[in-house]
Amino acid sequence: MKAGKTPWNQRIKTRVLVFGILMSIIPMVFISLTTFNTVRYKFKDSIREQNIQKSMVIATKLQVSITNIVESLANLTDVNSTVLIKGKDKEQEGILNIVLRQEPYLEDIKILDKNLNTIVQVSRREVIVDGIVSNVDYVGPETMPEHYTVSDVFFSKDQRPQFFITLGIKDTQTREHLGYLQAKADLKLMINQYIDTRIGHKGYVFFVDEEGSLIGHTDFSRVLSQEDIRENPAVNSFLTGEKPPSEYSGDQGEKVIGSFARVDKPNWGVFIEQPVKEAYEPIYELARNLGGVLFLTIAVVTILSIVFGLKLVQPIEDLETQVKKIKVTGDLQADISYSSQDEIGRLAYSFKQLMAMLDEKNQNIKAEKELLRTVVDGIGAGMVLLNVHKQIIWWNPTFAEWFGEINYFNLSCEDIVQSEEDFDCSFLQSGRVNSFVLDGERKYLRQLHYQIPSENSEGAVYLVILEDVTQQVEMESRVIETDKMASLGLLASGIAHEINNPLAIVSAYSEELLDCLNEEPNKVDIDEIKESLRITSEQIVRCKQITDGLLQFSRKRQHSFSMMDIGAVSSQVIKLLEYKTKQKFITLKRQLNPGLYIAGNENEWQQVVLNILSNALDASPTNSQVEIESCRIDDSIHFIVKDNGQGIPQSQLKNVFNPFFTTKPVGQGTGLGLFVSYGIIQRMNGRLIIESTEGKGTTVSITLPAYKGG
Amino acid sequence: MGRVIYFIYILYLVGAGFYMSKVSIAEEKVVRIGVLSQNEDRLEKFEGLRDELSNLNYQEGKDVVYEVMTAPNDYAEMDQLAEKLVSQKFDVLVASGEGETRSLSKTVAKLNNPPPIIFMGALSPIAIGLVESEVIPGTNVTGLNNYHYELIAKRLDLLKRLIPHVEEVAVLGDRRTNLFQDSQQGLAQTARELNISYKMYDISIEQDIPRIVNEISKTSQAILIMPGLFLETHTKAIASYGLIKGVPVFGVYPSDAEKGCIASYGTSYYNQGAQTAHMVHKIIMGYSPKSIPVETAEKLSFTVNLEVAQKLGISLEEAYIYFADKVIGQGGYQ
Q1: Is there a contact between B2 and A302 if contact means CB atoms under 8 Å apart?
Q2: What is the C-alpha end-to-end distance of chain B, expressed in Å?
Q3: Comparing C-alpha atoms, which of A291, A661, A439, A82 is closest to residue B22?
Q4: Low-confidence residues of chain B, pLDDT below 50?
């Protein structure tokens, strides 16, 4: 986990808050939605049912109003039929006036004879002129098969919807058809009490006749404008008899809840429409109230959640503050105070215990670190830690002492180490000894490197140890020089013989030439002199080669490595031993292939060859054979010397590389040859193996890495 | 981020509080109705309006409140009251008659969004120029045609039928009323049809009443009062002088019979107000006055005063007494 400020959404108090809110909202929302939906469906049904009931009540009342008028008229025709048709004018007018007074919805009323001529007429608004016979307005089916007929609705001069109710008049006794009683009813007056029935605030009532024509409406202007509402879904259902939709787009485009009921006779429809928006207002109000309660609940729960969240989190934050303080001061012995016995109290106590443990461990680590530092500082070796880019990330005081007190951080290996030899910054060869001039003094440092696990926090990948092996190297050098001098001593007599022979030849030819010049100076044969000088020169060259080989061998050892042809360099040494082979009539069988290059010090290699070959010649009997062979197998160069000598007993074989161990007679060996050779081969990263069978001979195998160039 | 959360939360709390306050105090809007009346008599119209609105479930004080202002037949004061009513920005302005409507219309004409004006009965509103059309008024003014002008002929008809021996009728009119001249032609035609003669009398000051009635009594057997503010307010005096001179008077309003007329035919103040209540109801429902047609009076009342007839020694035609909605005297003919 990263240190620093915790994002708000990951804080415990935020989670407590969210948890509190969710746990309060979810049940509330669920209950509210369930309640709301239940109420909504019930309410919708209720609204529709109420509107249906209202429309049915209005239809029934309208029907009753018409029926009452009809019954009143029917009663009149039944009782007064004779008077109505044949009575005196005043009697007829009186009767009709009574009816007109009793029936407030009637506008006028007239009696017609069976030829449809007006006999008498009374009216509320019209002036009735005696003697002027008006035609009947409406009768209905000619035969009057029905008890009464109702005309279509028409409009009066003052734009009032009206209709005729016509009944037949029959003689009370004979049932003879005498004429008609026709009343003009004022539909607007009749329905006025219904069209303003309050259907909410925006609901309205309207009436249509059997053809779907608008005959009454809360908004009476729509009646007067003769608006065609047959396309209204409810009206359409009324006309077709299909089931009406409960909700549809009203004539004004607004969605409405519609219902209707039929008036039986005439076949009129009473419709109630109420805008959905208004009808469901109580539902919306309920939703708003529920929303309000929800809001309030959330607010209260949020406050409680914040209070409890803070109360819960405060001790944790106190604990965090104390821990941060300890982190800043590093004082692991600081007290973490929390007095409660609850879980956080136990957590604080555990922290304290953990701190104590950490402190103890820290003290131990410090002690160990101090010890380690003492060791590292006093080990006498330079130590450096490198990262994956081989940049220095740590060094010890010894390293700084050797290479200077500067900041090495992030400097590369190449920037620091400038060896006289080729320092291995690629860390291919561990154990390699390099020469440095540090503070004007030559030092030999063995370079050891180790790859360390990369999981460490510092990112260290390599540990390089520079071990000061100056004394060891110098000691080895002295041993090698000693060994070389000893070898030179042993070679001296043989080399002297080797030089003597050409010198004897030179002497002989010189004397002969001198004699010729002294005895017969004029008869000197030039060719003969040339031949003598040539031979003399050859012998001198031969001597020079011997002495060159000896000089080269005896040259002061250099420590630098270079590429060398193992066959060529080895041949120079073999020449130094030719006398020895001749002396013992030993056949030197050489198979030194050219072009086999190795990296090493030429002088040291010659010393190795001299030591091994000398041992082979010393061990070989007279008239025997010593084989010398070099070859390449894969990336290795093999150099093998094999003799047929007496061999080395197994018991002594393990000691052959020990210094001063020799099986040679006293005065013939120093016991340093193989010891020195082994050291040289090791520095060349090679292997030296001796296999020997007592009585049969010894084979020395040297394996060296082939030179790869560069 | 934390501050933003706290800020949002505080906003939320404020919003929730505001919302709850709105939800809790949300209530029905109270409709304010301003009423202008030219005199105390016409307040009967307001009674009808108030009662009918109550029947339509408008509870006074809860659903509607009224402010009634009365100018005692003073046109100048009525204009001031109209100004006062309009300045109080009522939802609906109700005028008791033509004069009140004109005062209110004149005042609201200055406004960009004039309130609806509903008149509780006026003579033939198109003819007197209150509205452009009865079907579609087209302005913010609509109301009730009390039909009194249209019923002049019917009154003459009823007078002739109720008192058949009448041969000449004196028609009392106020020349200042808009329709005085227009009514002449209709009267002449009806008189011809009814085979009756009539004489027009212009009366506009109270002091002329005795003189004119006296004059009428010399030739005419009955007086027919035409509608108009002056005559409305002086019907009782006319009827009284008619009774003195033995001339029956036929009135306009049902109450005229109670004031001494032998009969009257027309719609009452109360019924005019009650019928107008339905138009106010439509305004409250949200309908525009422009689309509310001018209605004609629905309930016409024929009232007969037998006491007056008896005092005058006149026998009334029984067949038309039957037509009377109310008969005064002798237990009536109900």
Answers
A1: no
A2: 89
A3: A291
A4: 25, 332-334
**CATH of range B31-146+269-296; options 3.30.70.1060, 3.40.50.2300, 3.40.50.300, 3.30.70.60:** 3.40.50.2300
**One fold for both A50-62+190-279 and A475-705?**
no
Cβ–Cβ of B157/A128 closer than 8 Å? yes
Query: Where in chain B is CATH 3.40.50.2300?
Result: 31-146+269-296, 152-266+300-328
Q: Which fold has domain A381-466?
A: Beta-Lactamase (3.30.450)
pLDDT tens per residue across span A372-407: 888 888 888 888 888 888 888 888 888 888 888 778
- Classify domain A50-62+190-279 at the CATH class level: alpha beta
Residues of A in contact with B285 (CB under 8 A): 201-202, 204, 218
Q: Tell me how far apart the alpha carbons of residues B66 and B93 are, in angstroms, rounded to a whole number.
A: 10
> Which of B2, B135, B291 lies closest to A159 in CB terms?
B135
Q: Between B156, B193, B293, which is nearest A224 by CB? A: B293
Contact yes or no for A8 and B56 at CB 8 A: no
Cα–Cα distance, A402 to A372 (Å, whole number)? 20
Q: Report the pLDDT value the prediction gives residue B332, as an integer from 0 to 100.
A: 46
- Domain-wise residue ranges, chain A: 8-32+282-327, 50-62+190-279, 69-186, 330-378, 381-466, 475-705
B192: three-class secondary structure by DSSP: helix
Could you name the CATH architecture of B152-266+300-328?
3-Layer(aba) Sandwich (3.40)
Inter-chain residue contact B193 with A295, CB threshold 8 Å: no
Taking an 8 Å cut-off on Cβ atoms, the answer to whether A295 and B325 are in contact is no
Closest-CA residue to A587 (of A621, A615, A564):
A621
What single-letter amino acid sits at B276? T
Cβ atoms of B153 and B129 within 8 Å: the answer is no
The verdict on a CB contact (< 8 Å) between B323 and A291 is no
pLDDT at A710 (0 to 100): 45
pLDDT at res. B244: 93
Provide the token pair at A363: 């003290």
Residues of chain A with pLDDT below 50 are 143, 710
Residue A684, pLDDT score: 87
Nearest to A101 among B292, B317, B322 (CB): B322
Closest partner residue to B20 (CB to CB) among A198, A285, A295 is A295
From B84's Cα to the closest Cα of chain A, the distance in A is 29
Q: What is the pLDDT of residue A48?
A: 83
Q: Residue B69's pLDDT is what?
A: 94
| Residue of B7, B9, B20 for testing the chain A interface, max A β-carbons within 10 Å | B20
**CATH number of the domain located at residue range(s) A475-705 in this protein:** 3.30.565.10
Domain A69-186 CATH assignment equals 3.40.50.2300? no
Angle at which helices A12-86 and A89-102 pack, to 10 degrees? 170
- What is the identity of the amino acid at A444? Y
For residue A306, the model assigns a pLDDT of: 75
Complex-level ipTM: 0.88
Minimum distance, in Å, between the CA of residue B194 and any CA atom of chain A: 6
> What's the Cα-to-Cα distance from B55 to each of A95, A121, A292, B48, B274, rounded to whole Å?
34, 35, 35, 10, 10
Between chains, do A158 and B150 touch, taking CB under 8 Å as contact?
Answer: yes
Cis, bond preceding B137 (omega within 30 deg of 0): no
Q: Which of B13, B281, B296 comes nearest A160 by C-beta? A: B296
Q: Tell me the two tokens of residue A318.
A: 């106190």
Q: Do B12 and A97 touch (CB under 8 A)?
A: no
Interface probe with A: pick from B4, B9, B10, B23, most Cβ of A within 10 Å: B23
Q: What are residue B36's DSSP bridge partners? A: B69, B95
Residues of B in contact with A188 (CB under 8 A): 298
Query: How long a stretch of residues is chain A?
Result: 710
